[in-house]
Sequence to fold (1040 residues):
Amino acid sequence: MSPALPDGDEAPADGALPSGVVAGADERAFGVYLHVPFCTVRCGYCDFNTYTATELGGGASQVSYAATAVREVALGARVLRDAGLPQRPVSTVFVGGGTPTVLPADDLVGMLRAVDDAWGLADGAEVTTEANPDSVTPDSLAALAAGGFTRVSFGMQSAVPHVLRTLERTHDPARIPDVVRWARDAGLDVSLDLIYGTPGETLDDWRTSVEAALATGVDHVSAYALVVEEGTRMAVQVRRGELVLPDADDQAAKYELADELLTEAGLGWYEVSNWARGPQHACRHNLAYWRGDDWWGIGPGAHSHVGGVRWWNVKHPRAYAARLESGLSPAAGREVVDDDAAALERLMLHVRLAEGMPLAELTLDERTRVAGLVADGLVDGRPLLTDQRLVLTRRGRLLADLVVRTLAGFGA
Amino acid sequence: MSPIPSAAAAARIRPAATAPELLRNFCIIAHIDHGKSTLADRMLQLTGVVEARAMRAQYLDRMDIERERGITIKSQAVRMPWSVEDATGTLQPYALNMIDTPGHVDFTYEVSRSLAACEGAVLLVDAAQGIEAQTLANLYLALENDLQVIPVLNKIDLPAAQPEKYAEELAGLVGGDPADVLKVSGKTGEGVETLLDRIVELVPAPVGDADAPARAMIFDSVYDTYRGVVTYVRVVDGNLNPRERIAMMSTKATHELLEIGVISPEPVPTKGLGVGEVGYLITGVKDVRQSKVGDTVTNAGKPAAEPLGGYSDPKPMVFSGLYPIDGSDYPALRDALDKLKLNDAALNYEPETSVALGFGFRVGFLGLLHLEIIRERLEREFDLDLISTAPNVVYDVVMEDRTEIHVTNPSEFPGGKIREVREPVVKATILAPAEFIGAIMELCQSKRGDLQGMDYLSEDRVEMRYTLPLAEIVFDFFDQLKSRTRGYASLDYEPTGEQVADLVKVDILLQGEQVDAFSAIVHKDKAYAYGVMMTAKLKDLIPRQQFEVPIQAAVGSRVIARETIRAIRKDVLAKCYGGDITRKRKLLEKQKEGKKRMKTIGRVDVPQEAFIAALSSDAAAPKDAKKK
Fold:
């Protein structure tokens, strides 16, 4: 969850949704995101909505957080029912942060139970939690699995000590193979998150990290270019010249290397920054974001989407707790996405996926622009012909935003 | 006793009924920030024309731009009463007309007409800085017009003031004793009363034939939205009366005089204007071209035989293409230029099209400041976003077959067999501390200058005179001069004719496609340097595209410089999850707006900013014109 909330309309105090959200609801999956806004330390590059104090005042402590979040679950169930939406079992749950695993496994399981009580978990539901390699034990992972979690995503970031130091990550990279083994032993599907383009990281450093991730035998890897956001400690270091950011060409070379190594190892890309060993290991929760499904985001700063209405909660855990305690919706603002905006979102999200954007969903104008993108080597010609889908080449993935602008006629 | 005349005395200096002996017409010659407007403010206060509480800084400068930049574009004339004791000890009333002159080189012609309306000039010099080149040029103009010059040092309240040193310099220039140089402070008012007394004492009263047919010289002409054109005149002979018909001697056009009056400091209608008087006329004409600066106004019924001398048509020296950033603003730009033209006889323009920039106008200006003022007024008063191409001068190209082509836009420079190219040259005067002589000579030499002479104004200040191609001055001469002399040098120039020069056109090509807006005419020896500079600049300004973009500079078909913009490799946000979607979509929508500010040349998207940055050679703006 990035920090600054978007500009939007005012959200109603009771969180009520307009009636339009009902249309087509049967065809959309329903998921739940649970935000845990706590970490033991804040990393220098991090701009997520997270706090390191255990006691934030006003009923916003780590200890009482799960109970507060459960109130929003109840509110969510009521709002969806009142809007006239059909009862849909939850097909995916994703617990993110922050560092969810700073909370005891019992709290995480408790929140999951509340979701199950409110909406019911679908058969074979995917239930993921993010975790820090140094905040799990074999026991805590087993407890999560026993409580219904099916998947864990570890913030590995790098296998190279100096890179981890620059990122201010505290975990020992040697621990990664262990935590992956513990998680798999507990029956959890495992993903590793990597970051490339950290100041001081060489191409060889990056190769080391990708290879280390693959050596654990994981079935899913996410790799993100480091983005230094305004307001972070790292942004200050960059501004002062203490850290030198790699340029976009360096990041491109690292992306290409990762894609090569991961593909060789049998992990195919299914989204610009995500690779999995076959579709059964892809993150279904994240796919739901990109496919325009419905989800309810629980927690401070969490975003939700239901039937073309997007809203976001107040950012600070204290304001969040206060709202829920007085029986109000924690939403800070929302927008009802109009048809043009929805079409642009669909394009912008689908283009990122290996399954691609169905040509049929493009306007005539947009379709006339496809040929140039094929000629420039950004769009793969084969799926275009065989499946009528627009799928990016590797070069195209690196220029996905440019492709979207070109297709939409916004210029490069 | 108050120097402001009593009611009885004031009756003797009523407009249209003032004896010429009681009139004093003067102007103030000063460099841009030497405090002319502040001194004028004090005079308005001391003579009671403006009450202290109604006073606002730089009262006479009407336009916002003038007030902000602290410069005066259009001259004004204010009538102020003042009394001085005569030999018998009785107070004599006088009417003082202060004619404000534009201070910049671009407006030399207007300055010369303002000076011609006066008998005296206050030479105002900053006591901390000494005389500057433009002031010197205007002083020479005043001396040529036989004006009585009263040297005055201003800002004596400043800690850095060196009144003794500069009094000597002024005395050296004007003649007389350094002790006679008045020392005033416009800020505190010190010495200003003495100056007013001195004006009455030294400036000769106007002389004219009251019975002759009227002859009045137009020294300014201003368009007012409500009144139409307001014409400022100085009556030389005869008199002008309300409701009579007047004639413009250059055009023979006649107009009815709807209103005649004086400014004090707001316009006040009067029963007319007599010999030596200064005031305004309103005839209802809507275009300043019908009431041209320098022209002679006479009675239509009883016209004068001969016009007053010195009239000439303003001639544009510098041209630039003005293009709306949003192409749909083209009609608005045309309307805006039409409106500005009403108030600016020197402004002229013709529509032109550019492959790169679309529809726009090629606009002729008196000089760089004029260009900048017009551009700024278009943007500020008419809310237009404009691109202006690098300013250029006019070239006369003679082909082998003796046909002549007048080039006001570099892209029109002909190919084929050229016999000769002529370019305008100027006579430049540079004043600087003597320690910079070497640096200035080096600069002028590199700018194809020709030293005409050099004089020491004082022990450590020197005046250097050069002949220089105007094109070099338009390019980056002034900035270079300032930087090589640590800001101490001042420059003035005036056109002196043409010279034959070895000039070529350098074209810039993007992906093989010529970008007309970037073509430039430069001396053969500088073509390579220009090509290298421009291609390097564009390489930095044009964002990387999804393909490689070569940028070339060429003379004819010969490529003289080349740069390559490598293809972009990464343009994607790594993360796009639930909370990122709204923000990312809004960013895209914003980029769509940005697309409007792009021009596509061939397949290359060039942001407007790149055009602006590439075309505004840091040099193009006369930076001294802006008050920092």
Summary: Chain B touches chain A at residues 545-547, 568-586, 588-589, 591-592, 594-595, 598, 600, 605 (CB under 8 Å).
